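Morning!

This is the sequence you dropped in the shared folder:
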Amino acid sequence: MGLRIVEEAALTDVGRQRNANEDAYYESSPVFAVADGMGGARAGEVAARIAVEEFDQVADETASPEELLAGIARSANKRIYELAQRDETHAGMGTTFIAAMVSGNEVAVGHVGDSRAYRFRDEELERLTQDHSLVEELRRQGKLTEAQAEAHPQRSIITRALGPEPDVDVDTFSFPARDGDVYMLCSDGLTGMVSEERIAQILRVRSSLRQAAEELVSEANARGGRDNITVVLFKLGGDEERDQDSDTLSGQETSVALGDGAPAADPAHETMAMPAAEANAARAAVAEREAPPPEAPAAEPPPARPARRGKRWLKAAVGVLVVAAVLAGLWIGSRQFWFVGTDNQGAITLFRGLPYELPLGVKLYTEEYQSSVPALSLPKLQRQRILDHQLRGRSDAVDLVRSLEQTHAS
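The structure's back. Tokens below.
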């Protein structure tokens, strides 16, 4: 007998740094989806809305779950692309697409872009999808480590989306499901702010999926909320499943303290009666222990130790100065370099510095100029070649951006 959805929750939030929410979600059991739109003049909002509305147009009931999700994505891609071609205010718009469908004892997933699907099983979180992003491709090629990919300033640049091109490749998978599984779909507004370890912690101690969704959104906002945040959660159970929290203490041993915390008496360790001779010897030993010790001659006080606090402060100050000098050197040295990337809206942007962030959010680059060219409007190969973060001289970088603007305008 197949599994069923016993609990679900969905939440979206504009975040702390955006004026509009260009995310959208679909929640209609047994199908769930998240779309993260991009494009100027709120065109991303339009693209995301088209993607989720397409689920209401499903007509092919003979298709498998994977075929169904892929067909919905391709149909939405066609609608978004054709609208962008007709209306120049929507040029270059697009959206990510992540969808899940529960069927029997399996969960089918359809995926385009960097919105993600996760499975929470046996108290562990597992990512089910790989981002279609520039940073992820560089990581897979061994050009970036996992740590470098997580801190890369252009980690939001995606290489695949619905809308920019007339056709789109849709990744589809099916995963065997189990009683108690929790699945999560989300936009990168969550995963870009909150680590997977922290997401797992929140899911472990949840009181409900609704509370977990609220906590995840709150955590992303507390860490900066640089993008829109969307989370969809659903839990699977058998027919007899009662909607209880999976993290109960039933079946676990519980230790209980008595009174002021002293352990309960153990009959196996009760005091036994002693013979008289042994009792007298014991009383003598007790009396000897309780007798006051003889007065010892007053000892001379130990020589005073020289104060070390000043030295500790001096070492700390020197350490801070060294770190500051290193950071200043990196910053000054980085100013001679330029590179081309995208801003948070996906537009081709000119940056000065090195494409890296240090711990504590220290950036080695500054945004110097934002063009009017959406990165997704460029052909795929050209986009990958331009956004490889090659370090350039100022004139070379400026000429490249100007040529892209002239081509886009014509």
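Headline: The first strand starts at residue 4 and ends at 13.

More detail when I'm at my desk.
O.
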